[in-house]
Each structure stands twice: as structure tokens, then as C-alpha cells.
Amino acid sequence: MHSISIALERLGDFMQQDIPATPGLRHFDVSFPLNDAFDPLAWLGAQIAYPQFYWQQRNGDEELAALGAAEHFSTLSAARQFLNNRHACAETRICGLNAFTPEQSHLFLPRLLWQRTGGMASLRLNLSSNVSLQDDARRALEFLQQLQTIRPITTLSSQIVRETHLPARPEWLSLVSQATDAIAHGEFEKVVLARATDLHFDQRVNAIALMAASRRINHNCYHYCMIFDAQNAFMGSSPERLWRRRGTLLRTEALAGTVASHADDAQSHRLGEWLLNDDKNQRENMLVVEDICERLQHHTQALEVLPAQVVRLRKVQHLRRCIWTELNLADDEQCLHLLQPTAAVAGLPRDSARAFIQRNEPFEREWYAGSAGYLSPEQSEFCVTLRCARVSHTAVRLYAGAGIISGSVPEEEWQEIENKAAGLRTLLLMD
């Protein structure tokens, strides 16, 4: 018998206990032995309950799979208020997405949460009610009884029938020139412009299968997947941390500056060395560092900026500088609004760059360049939602962006977004 079946059985037994008919928040945990081939992503993919959320930390040490919602939150502020008002225990986790416009979120307290830290895993069932935990326990038991048995993840098999870009290449080149003109006139120092690529297929695209394929091949990335319902999902594999909080200790980073990667290690190393010494890319990265430090300085203790390093991914390489500090107050809502969107995904100054984006990009960013992860009273971690796709039945929208500063060359920026989008595009176009 699978370990998930045993854990679910035990949780079902807990629901038979005498649970009080009072309001409140309560959880039940079952330890989860990592002694079989259980894949939480495959388990989610077998279910017909929503929402579903999968998230894996980029070093692989932490992983979670959330199924069903005991509570929904449309803002991170509402989620944080819920944790405070319900006097939630330190490890109560709320997970999901924040949009590019951080005032909008899709966060939820999972009905079921599988989580792994290192070699330890557990399955948690959450009860929450403003009226009666006993009534919610009955709903939870019905939820458990409707779960499906785990099955292997299917392979991607759809064939593309049409592909379009927003903006198309001529309009993109013109938009980059427009941005560099605005920079020359002092409107802003940097703006990050994005492109949406719409791929239409001959049959439904399985978002779980796309997530599994990306997880298998796109290393050194956060992997995240939100399944809203049977037709709609948002997923990706991002190299960039927005923040990690442990108590009041905070880690964030500036990930900006890009060059192509290469399958040959020696050639990839040469490209990485060029990136470390290229003035344009170093300036782009330092603009992000300075902006983050300026935003954090009145809310933290001393800020430590680590030396630049090259992050090598499958299709591209990036410059990264990590920033470590301690918060004056462990406040995730404050972290979100201070850090998102960073200059790495919007520009600098933030307000004027966002205004340019709003006026000129021919699509809404929605969840692109927002964040995905979890928060709890004890800790939180969110990645920036890059290298991502919105899946809607037979259509997939890919997103990619490039930082435009003084000296940016439109043709080179087009090639950069081509390289970035290739991380998922190549998976969808494999025979």
C-alpha cells in the first residue's frame, strides 16, 4: 500500500474523533515515510479537487503539494490577518500566488498539505470555521473520500497548430527603441519589457505534465504550479528568489544581467566570464541591488551584499548578488510591497517604469513577474514567477522579459527573450 494511502486513512480516523462545534482553526498531522516512489506532483495530477498548488525550492530541500482550500484569500494582507486573528500556530502555511500588481493574490489555506523538508515529510489536514469545526470536519471527511488513487503523469503529446507573439518582432524592436529614447530623456533609468507568446495546440495541454517535464530538465530553479480548475493553470521554473524569511532573518537577491548558456561546459564558462566582466550587464545588476537596498534600509538592520556570481541555467546564464539582512519586524505583507515588483522585473524608478509598461505592453501580465510560495507565522518564502506559462485548455501563453537600459540594442534584447522563453517552449515542441 502506498504511503499516501496509509496517511490518508489515519487522517480519516482523526475525523471520527469528537471535534467541538465551535469556531476556530485546527490541524492534524501524519508523518509521511519517504520509502516509496511517491511523487506529490503525480498525486495532485490524479485529483479532481481544486485548487492545486505545487512548489519546490530551487535547491530541492523543500517541497510542498496543496490540495483543496479550507480558506481562500485574495490578498496577502488578508492571509496575514487570518493567521494573526486565528492565533495560528507557527507552522500554519498559506500558499499560492501574488500577481505582478501585488495587491492581487490567489492564496489559500490547504485542506490537505503534503510537505517535505530535507528527508522529513508529513501530510496535514486543516480545519477552519467561523461557526463550527465539527461541521468542517464532516466536509473534510467527504473531501478525503473523494480523492483519487495516484497514477503516473502522462507525457506531453499535443501538436502546435499556431503561434503568435505579443508584441510581434517589429513592434518589439520599436518598443525597445521607444524605451531607450525615454531613458535618454530621463523618464527612468531602466524598464523591463515583456513579450507574451501564444501557442495553440490540437488537444488539451496537461499542465502537470508540463511542470514535470520542466522540473526534470530545468535545474537550479524553483518549480511552481497552480491549478485553478480543470481547464486553467499557471506554472513555471524560476531561478529567482523574491524573499526567504526565517523569523526576522531575510534573504533576497538581485538577479539581472543575462547571456546565453551552452551545453559545452567550457563554452558556457567563457560566456559566464564575459557576463561577469560586461559593463552593461553589471550596471543592470547594480541598479537592482541599489533599489532593493534603498527600499529595505529603513525596515531592516545592516544590509550585506554578497559578491556577484553567475547562475547557469539550461538556456541562459544570469548575474546574481545575494542580499542578507534582519527585519525590524517579521511582516510578510511589508516584504511583498517593498520587494515586488523589483527593478529586475519592472524597472527603476519603479513607479515610472510601471507606468511605461502599463501604457505600452499589449497584454496584461497577471501572474507573470509576480511571486509564488508560502507564508506562515514562523517563516515564508516566495520566488519570482518567471520562465512561466499560463495554460488554458488547448492554449499556452509563455512569458519572457528583458531589462532595457541605456545602450540596450533592440535585436539583442529580442534574442534574450527568445532564449528565456526557450526553457518551456522547447518542452512543448518536442516530438
TrEMBL record:
Active-site residue list: 190, 240
Claim: Acetylation is one of the keywords in the record: no
Gene3D superfamilies xref list: Anthranilate synthase
GO MF term (any one): magnesium ion binding
Cofactor(s) required, per the database record: Mg(2+)
Pathway(s) of this molecule: Quinol/quinone metabolism; 1,4-dihydroxy-2-naphthoate biosynthesis; 1,4-dihydroxy-2-naphthoate from chorismate: step 1/7; Quinol/quinone metabolism; menaquinone biosynthesis
GO terms for biological process, alphabetical: menaquinone biosynthetic process
Catalytic activity: chorismate = isochorismate
Enzyme Commission number(s): 5.4.4.2
Residues given in the record as Mg(2+) binding sites: 284, 416
Domain Chorismate-utilising enzyme C-terminal: 170-420
Parts forming coiled coils: none
Record flagged with keyword Isomerase: yes
Keywords noted in UniProt: Isomerase, Magnesium, Menaquinone biosynthesis, Metal-binding
Role noted for this protein: Catalyzes the conversion of chorismate to isochorismate.
Protein family per UniProt: Belongs to the isochorismate synthase family.
Protein's name according to its UniProt entry: Isochorismate synthase MenF
Organism of origin: Enterobacter sp. (strain 638)
Encoding gene per record: menF
